[in-house]
TrEMBL record:
Signal peptide: none annotated. GO terms for biological process: negative regulation of proteasomal ubiquitin-dependent protein catabolic process; negative regulation of protein K48-linked deubiquitination; negative regulation of protein ubiquitination. Residues 1-24 are annotated as: Disordered. GO terms for cellular component: cytoplasm; nucleus. Residues 105-187 form a coiled coil. Pfam families: UBX. It comes from the Eukaryota. Keywords: Coiled coil, Cytoplasm, Metal-binding, Zinc, Zinc-finger. It comes from Argiope bruennichi (Wasp spider). SMART domains: UBX (SM00166). This is UBX domain-containing protein 1-B. Gene3D superfamilies: Phosphatidylinositol 3-kinase Catalytic Subunit, Chain A, domain 1 (3.10.20.90). It is found in: Cytoplasm. Residues 221-299 form the UBX domain.
């Protein structure tokens, strides 16, 4: 100390041996370090205590369930929330600190029973829906089949009508062609007569009258319908009335549309007199084939 007072105005470094401490003064720095260390530990402990307290408070306020804000119903898991949202259409949910009371054994059994009832009801509803859909499909299939049959029948009728019109046109064209041939023959005759100065035939010339014997004929009935019975290969019979001037092709088409003995090719024949009709006979009227006023036609294998 005395040296410090004497050299207070000097910048000379202080020698170490200048300081001399008593035993108490020597231990003072150590005590100060211990005190500071203890204070730091106390401060750290207080900080940790405050952090623990905050964590405990956070745990106490942590969400223990989920709640629907629209109906106030509580749920344990996210899956229950999703199911509730799909079932009810609710969209507003939030966390809740209220803990849902666990179910007792009786409550669990009751819940299981309810679930089994719901599952059974859903299964019955699904079965009813499947039966209903199957019935609707069957009705639709039958309706479609009937419509197809009607369309096919209409097409066949239209085809028959077109065939009849074509046949009529062919006959008319044949008649007109024959008439043209006759007219051409008559013109050729006239040209030859004019070329060779031949007199024209006198239609007024009469041959000597010869007494003729009066011939008495019995009146012939004209039938305009033909009642045809068709005997199929399986023994069943079909009966239909046709016009006397309808062609045999109409009978064949009727058999094709209504037969019940399969769809194999067939021919038509009669037993009395025995005759197997050919393709050429299909364009012949029934009256010319001797099938009026009634006849029995047999369906047989192709001859």
């Amino acid at each position: 100390m005395e040296w410090l007072l004497a050299h207070s105005d000097s910048n000379e470094p202080v020698p170490q041996e200048t300081f001399s401490f008593s035993d108490g003064e020597k231990n003072l720095p150590i005590q100060m370090e211990v005190t500071e260390s203890a204070n730091q530990e106390v401060t750290a402990n207080e900080g940790e205590s405050e952090a623990v307290t905050e964590v405990d408070e956070e745990l106490l306020t942590q969400a223990k369930s989920l709640k629907c804000d629209e109906c106030n119903k509580k749920f344990r898991t996210d899956s229950e929330v999703e199911f509730h949202a799909v079932k009810t259409g609710h969209q507003s949910f939030s966390e809740s600190s209220e803990e849902i009371k666990p179910l007792t054994e009786e409550e669990k059994k009751e819940q299981i029973k309810k679930l089994e009832t719901i599952i059974k009801q859903r299964r019955l509803e699904r079965q009813e829906q499947e039966k209903k859909e199957a019935l609707e499909r069957e009705i639709s299939r039958r309706k479609t089949g009937q419509e197809i049959t009607q369309v096919r029948q209409k097409m066949q009728e239209e085809e028959m009508k077109q065939l009849a019109e074509a046949k009529k046109r062919e006959k008319l064209e044949a008649k007109q062609a024959r008439q043209r041939v006759l007219e051409q023959i008559e013109r050729d005759k006239q040209a030859r007569r004019e070329k060779f100065n031949m007199p024209a035939p006198n239609p007024q010339a009469t041959s000597p009258t010869v007494p003729t014997k009066e011939i008495v004929t019995t009146p012939v009935e004209n039938y305009d319908q033909a009642r045809i019975q068709v005997r199929l290969m399986n023994g069943e019979c079909l009966t239909q009335t046709f016009g006397a001037n309808e062609e045999l092709a109409a009978v064949r088409l009727f058999v094709q549309m209504n037969r019940t003995d399969g769809s194999t090719p067939f021919s038509l024949m009669t037993n009395f007199p025995r005759k197997v009709f050919t393709e050429d006979d299909m364009n012949t009227p029934l009256s010319k084939l001797g099938l009026v006023p009634s006849a029995v036609i047999i369906v047989c294998k192709p001859q």
